[in-house]
Q: What sequence folds into this?
């Protein structure tokens, strides 16, 4: 794996001048993705924040080949490109080794793009699908998605006196992808930079589909201080809100096990989307219980598969 | 087609490409004008570890001739993530002057 100093001199393939909000977590993920993927890469994007901010027609923030397609089919588009590449390579018309990456937000992955992602994985295309998960449709004005956590305020699950935000738990997409019998599935955060970098390298080296679900702090949608984006991503891991683990060849591995997990309130109350839960002890207990159950389940899975 | 630095100037519809294709990168879009506060690096304290470079969302951390951090004020949006992640507290924010 290259060191930071080496990476700083590679030049950015995801360029400055994009129109993401100050303190956006998604762009940190994308530039790390490109620093590891290198120049011979084709990137496909689902509609979402990171597509809208990086492609101001007729310019893009990408110094590599970039395709934008509709909300639901970034995985399908990239599988098509990958198949065409394999056919041309067989005929000897392309000599280079090219990597294929599709990415989407949680709306374009958890909700709208799930069927095309599932199809692409089942067909076994050699590509990496990266989901930057900010937990709502932030680009269109913070609507709830199936990745929005329990209790979060969004414009379509507003917190009022009777209903306190979204009253359903979020979908566990990482487990759904593991159920596809994939060789490599991982969950990461931008705070654990070298861990995420490792995972991207592992996924790209693989001959087959890989999926990485990355937590992406969103100052606008989460109502947090832009300067705190990285600290919030760190808190998410320490409070067990976002376990950092990977699933490789049938084996679970939890990459970061907090020695003494912090209380979930530390993560919730640095964000305005949870501020209505301050005096709702029962609801916080419900969140805490759910996260602990999920964490214990994960520990058991790790124990059983190793 | 006229060009102003990296920016292409479109005068009429005929200047636009006839299909959806990229004509350059967004480097012409100087996002530094969004900033209210500017980060200042104290080069005496900076150890050149590169941590601020890792977490900058706008690729605005450069390396000066001594291997220490410098800020690209053309693109820095002033989010202050670098101030928070610096392990030796070498970066501070000051109000932007008009």
A:
């Amino acid at each position: 794996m290259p060191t930071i100093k080496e990476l700083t001199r590679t030049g950015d393939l995801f360029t400055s001048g994009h129109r993401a909000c100050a303190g956006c977590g998604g762009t940190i993920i994308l530039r790390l993705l490109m620093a590891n993927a290198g120049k011979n890469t084709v990137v496909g994007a689902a509609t979402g924040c990171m597509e809208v901010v990086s492609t101001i027609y007729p310019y893009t923030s990408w110094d590599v080949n970039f395709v934008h397609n509709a909300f639901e089919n970034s995985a399908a588009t990239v599988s098509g490109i990958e198949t065409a590449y394999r056919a041309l390579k067989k005929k000897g018309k392309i000599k280079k080794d090219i990597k294929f990456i599709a990415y989407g937000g949680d709306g374009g992955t958890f909700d709208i793009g799930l069927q095309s992602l599932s199809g692409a994985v089942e067909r076994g295309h050699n590509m990496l699908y990266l989901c930057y998960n900010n937990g709502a449709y932030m680009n269109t004005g913070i609507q709830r998605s199936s990745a929005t956590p329990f209790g979060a305020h969004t414009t379509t699950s507003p917190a009022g006196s009777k209903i306190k935000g979204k009253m359903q738990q979020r979908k566990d997409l990482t487990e759904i992808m593991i159920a596809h019998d994939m060789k490599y599935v991982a969950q990461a955060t931008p705070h654990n930079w070298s861990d995420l970098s490792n995972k991207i390298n592992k996924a790209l080296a693989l001959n087959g589909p890989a999926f990485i679900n990355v937590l992406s702090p969103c100052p606008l949608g989460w109502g947090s201080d832009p300067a705190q984006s990285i600290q919030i991503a760190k808190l998410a891991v320490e409070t067990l809100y976002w376990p950092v683990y990977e699933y490789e060849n049938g084996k679970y591995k939890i990459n970061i096990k907090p020695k003494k997990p912090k209380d979930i309130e530390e993560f919730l109350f640095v964000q305005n989307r949870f501020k209505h839960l301050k005096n709702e002890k029962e609801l916080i207990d419900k969140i805490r219980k759910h996260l602990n159950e999920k964490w214990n389940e994960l520990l058991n899975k790790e124990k059983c598969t190793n | 087609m006229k060009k102003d630095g990296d920016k292409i100037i479109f005068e009429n519809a005929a200047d636009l490409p006839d299909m959806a294709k990229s004509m350059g990168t967004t480097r012409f879009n100087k996002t530094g004008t969004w900033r209210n506060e500017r980060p200042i690096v104290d080069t005496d304290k900076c150890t050149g570890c590169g941590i601020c470079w890792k977490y900058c969302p706008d690729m605005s951390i450069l390396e000066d001739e001594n291997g220490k951090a410098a800020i690209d004020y053309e693109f820095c949006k002033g989010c202050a993530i670098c101030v928070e992640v610096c392990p030796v507290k070498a970066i501070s924010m000051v109000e932007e002057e008009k």
In short: The interface with chain B takes residues 4-5, 8-9, 12, 14-25, 27-28, 31-32, 54-63, 66, 190, 193, 219, 226-231 of chain A (CB under 8 Å). The radius of gyration of chain A is 19 Å. Strands of chain A lie at 41-45, 65-68, 99-105, 128-133, 184-188, 210-215, 245-248, 251-254.
